[in-house]
């Protein structure tokens, strides 16, 4: 039997991803530094983007999807008057136009994109068509029709106005492409635009102010690196909790459904044992039955 590489490491690392590298490169670098056997992330950032990239290790990988579903926040720089093939600074310049946009005009344009809106996913994306990522088709010179999807922009605030660029803060739902938002804003302003810088500042309740860079992580001693790990339930903070005694906790660990007349019915919850130990997640049926979903494998078992 082949022995897996690395140690059993559990937890969540808030990484401040540098620009110019893929999310997977950053993940593998952090994994090596922690000597972790199992690792994952909670949604990629484009190579040009920086900022918050929550990484999951061990048992925490079971809950990565919870943060994928969460709202995100970004600080974005839109260069006006220049459109590119990819909608961002990595693409080829398609057109250059004169810019004469006042701060008031920028504010008015931004207000049109707040709320629930339709957005067409870009060709340069990881979405698949007939099993192939769209970016592969785009690189081959192909262009296929994409169906517009509903997204929600909760806030779109102008932070800085320059002659040839604007800086905005964006709070949005999952699935929002900020570079498409930049293109659409540029189109509304009449001069075109592309995304020239992007920094993710928040994912759910997690913020970049609490994140560590790869350089700082590398400079730490192994014990310090592990001390940066947050518990698995940091990914589940939006869920209500159910507390079980020792007997019920043992049954839950075995995957048994528990008829406890529990609340809130019809919702997912995080479940804890008698010592306030996270046991996993569950759904509560309309009859109040706690139905195990994803279970934590205890190190003590």
Describe the structure.
- The protein is an alpha+beta fold.
- The chain has 3 domains: 11-69 and 205-233, Pseudouridine synthase, CATH 3.30.2350.10; 76-194, Pseudouridine synthase (2-Layer Sandwich); 239-295, PUA domain (Archaeosine Trna-guanine Transglycosylase, Chain: A, domain 4).
- It contains 8 helices and 19 strands.
- The protein has helices at residues 23-34, 64-68, 103-111, 134-139, 178-189, 214-219, 222-227, 246-253; strands at residues 11-17, 39-41, 50-57, 72-80, 82-84, 93-96, 115-119, 128-129, 132-133, 149-161, 165-172, 193-203, 206-207, 212-213, 240-243, 258-259, 268-272, 278-284, 289-295.
- Strands 1, 2, 3, 4, 7, 10, 11, 12, 13 and 14 form a 10-stranded mixed sheet that branches. Strands 15-17-18-19-16 form a 5-stranded mixed sheet.
- Strand 17 (268-272) and strand 18 (278-284) form a beta hairpin.
- The longest helix is centred in the first third of the chain and has 12 residues, at 23-34.
- The protein starts with 10 loop residues before the first strand and ends in a 6-residue tail after the last strand.
Task: Please name the defining characteristics of this protein.
single chain, Pseudouridine synthase, 301 residues, five-stranded mixed β-sheet, Archaeosine Trna-guanine Transglycosylase, Chain: A, domain 4, 21% helix, alpha+beta
Structure summary:
The protein is 21% helix and 35% strand. It is of the alpha+beta class.
């Amino acid at each position: 039997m082949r022995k897996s590489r690395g140690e059993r490491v559990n937890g969540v690392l808030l990484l401040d991803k540098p620009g110019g590298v893929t999310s997977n490169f950053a993940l593998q670098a952090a994994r090596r530094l922690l000597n972790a056997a199992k690792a994952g992330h909670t949604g990629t950032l484009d190579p040009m983007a920086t900022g918050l990239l929550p990484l999951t290790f061990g048992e925490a990988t079971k809950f990565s999807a919870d943060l994928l579903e969460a709202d995100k926040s970004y600080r974005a720089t839109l260069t006006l008057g220049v459109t590119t093939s990819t909608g961002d600074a990595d693409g080829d310049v398609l057109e250059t136009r004169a810019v004469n946009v006042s701060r008031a005009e920028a504010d008015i344009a931004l207000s049109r994109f707040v709320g629930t809106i339709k957005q067409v996913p870009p060709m340069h994306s990881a979405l698949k068509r007939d099993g192939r990522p769209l970016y592969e088709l785009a690189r081959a010179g192909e262009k296929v029709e994409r169906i517009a999807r509903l997204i929600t922009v909760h806030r779109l605030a102008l932070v800085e106005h320059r002659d040839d660029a604007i800086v905005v803060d964006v709070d949005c739902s999952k699935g929002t492409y900020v570079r498409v938002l930049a293109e659409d804003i540029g189109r509304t302003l009449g001069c075109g635009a592309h995304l020239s810088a992007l920094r993710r500042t928040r994912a759910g309740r997690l913020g970049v102010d609490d994140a560590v860079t790869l350089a700082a992580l590398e400079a730490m001693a192994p014990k310090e690196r592990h001390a940066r790990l947050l518990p698995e339930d940091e990914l589940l903070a939006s869920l209500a909790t159910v507390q079980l005694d020792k007997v019920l906790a043992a049954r839950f660990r075995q995957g048994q459904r528990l008829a406890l007349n529990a609340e809130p019915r019809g919702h997912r919850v995080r479940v804890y044992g008698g010592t306030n130990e996270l046991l996993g997640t569950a759904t509560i049926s309309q009859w109040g039955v706690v139905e195990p979903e994803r279970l934590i494998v205890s190190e003590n078992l």
